[in-house]
Specification:
By secondary structure, the chain is of the alpha+beta class. It has helices at 28-36, 40-47, 56-63, 114-128, 143-150, 176-186, and strands spanning 8-11, 17-22, 70-77, 83-92, 95-105, 133-139, 155-161, 164-170.
């Protein structure tokens, strides 16, 4: 049964606005158009290799999710309505408390805080579905993605070879807000009052 959530308007740190909601099957065209604004380097980092055009099967997989074992939360530019980012998890069948997680933001929208916003929302949804840990595979040089995952929890990093790593991040429960605030303070992203 598809989960129906309202679309939230969010203002990012640079003042730009996005509309965020769960991905729906009708979003195939949004994904196809956004793919054209997702640069080759970004594709390479996200898919750990060269990825050409999206196929019909790709679009089906990316948009026809059950919102329980496979969740996807997308963002659209509030001005144009164009797709600008998505965060998703896919629960591991062999360990249902763990899910593969990924975030993708089109190039012109990177560096504005959208990836972090999407990942925080995805983390909350995962908690609602009993997922306790995210796993992700990425290149060790992808510092931006590592920083996103560090913001939601402690990382366990394993080398996979060929410059790739696999990370596990434990998803906090009740103390998620405090833990995130303390990690941000440690990085100097927020100030603490005496």
């Amino acid at each position: 049964m598809a989960r129906s959530l309202p679309e939230d308007e969010v203002t990012l740190r640079d003042g730009s606005r996005v509309l965020i909601r769960p991905v729906q099957p009708a979003d195939k065209e949004l994904f196809a158009r956004a793919w054209e604004r997702f640069g080759e380097e970004s594709r390479y980092r996200r898919f750990l290799g060269v990825k050409g055009a999206l196929t019909r099967h790709d679009l089906q997989y990316l948009t026809e999710v059950d919102h329980v074992d496979h969740e996807a939360i997308g963002a659209r530019d509030a001005e144009t309505g164009e797709g600008v980012g998505v965060a998703r998890y896919v629960r591991l069948s062999e360990d249902p408390k763990v899910a593969e997680a990924a975030v993708a933001v089109v190039d012109p929208w990177q560096g504005r805080g959208l990836g972090g916003e999407l990942l925080r929302r995805l983390t909350a949804r995962a908690g609602e579905e009993g997922i306790e840990r995210f796993r992700a595979s990425l290149f060790a040089f992808n510092r931006e993605m590592l920083a996103l995952f560090e913001d939601i929890g402690e990382l366990e990093v394993r080398e996979r070879g060929n410059g790739q790593i696999e990370i596990d991040v434990e998803l906090a429960c009740e103390d998620r807000g405090l833990g995130a605030a303390l990690r941000a303070a440690a990085k100097g992203l927020v100030g603490l009052r005496p």
